């Protein structure tokens, strides 16, 4: 029986880190399913989901623990059954970069019992003013009873305070 192994990986960025990780996984008959990796301030940071036979789990974990230059933590995941009637939403946010944007938006999401499935953020200079803009893209799941209009109103009230643009659309994601 296969299990999912979710890895978090961090180390000083240099060529060959992904190959090193991929080699260890494949040598233990692990299947690299999905990942997200970035260079953040000179550090290589990532998350990886691997499918591996339970019989190989201990050996793979041991091999990952001794990879040079990487600090890896792993968690076994037994996937819950998909919940019927869940809605998938996508939230896009752009505004002047300032402390507290993520906290305030995430508080609204939590009040509406939205689950963050994927969060990507970055900052970039505004085209005309060179001011720093904060960009966020969030994929969410929600109960079918979610009142999207109320959520939109609450997020829009934040946008006036934080000078952000928020769009909320039903995401086409399977």
Structure description:
By secondary structure, the protein is an alpha+beta fold. The protein is about 30% helix and about 45% strand. It contains 4 helices and 8 strands; from the N terminus they run E-H-E-E-H-E-E-H-E-E-H-E. The chain has helices at about 15-25, 55-65, 100-110, 150-160; strands at about 1-10, 30-40, 45-55, 70-75, 85-95, 115-125, 130-140, 165-170. Helix 3 packs antiparallel against helix 4. The protein is flat. The two termini are about 25 Å apart. The mean pLDDT is about 90.
Report how far the terminal alpha carbons are from each other: 25 Å
Q: What is the percentage of strand-forming residues?
A: 35-45%
Structural classification: alpha+beta
Q: Low-confidence runs (pLDDT<50, min 5 residues)?
A: none
Q: Report the biggest beta sheet as strand number plus sense, adding barrel if it closes.
A: 4 strands, antiparallel
Question: H/E element string?
Answer: EHEEHEEHEEHE
Question: Can you count the helices?
Answer: 4
Binned, the helix content reads: 25-40%
Tell me the Rg in angstroms. 20 Å
Shape: flat
User: What is the average per-residue confidence, as pLDDT, rounded to a whole number?
Assistant: 89
Count the strands?
8
Q: Strand order of the main beta sheet, please?
A: 2-3-1-4
Describe this protein with a few key phrases:
four-stranded antiparallel sheet, 174 residues, 4 helices, alpha+beta, 45% strand, 8 strands, flat
Quick overview:
With 174 residues, the chain is α+β, with helices and mostly antiparallel strands. Helix content is 28%, strand content 45%.
């Amino acid at each position: 029986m296969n299990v999912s192994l979710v890895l978090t990986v961090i180390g000083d960025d240099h060529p060959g880190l992904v190959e090193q990780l991929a080699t260890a996984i494949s040598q233990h008959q692990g299947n690299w399913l999905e990942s997200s990796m970035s260079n953040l301030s000179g550090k290589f940071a990532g998350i990886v989901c691997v499918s591996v036979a339970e019989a190989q789990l201990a050996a793979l974990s041991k091999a990952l623990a001794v990879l040079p230059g990487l600090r890896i933590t792993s968690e076994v995941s037994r996937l819950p059954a998909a919940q019927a009637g869940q809605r998938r939403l996508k939230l896009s946010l752009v505004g002047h970069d300032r402390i507290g944007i993520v906290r305030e938006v995430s508080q609204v999401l939590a009040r509406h019992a939205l689950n963050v499935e994927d969060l990507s953020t970055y900052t970039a200079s505004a085209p005309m003013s060179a001011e720093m803009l904060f960009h966020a893209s969030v994929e969410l799941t929600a109960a079918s009873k979610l009142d999207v209009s109320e959520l939109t109103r609450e997020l829009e009230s934040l946008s006036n305070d934080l000078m952000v643009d928020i769009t909320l659309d039903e995401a086409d994601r399977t």
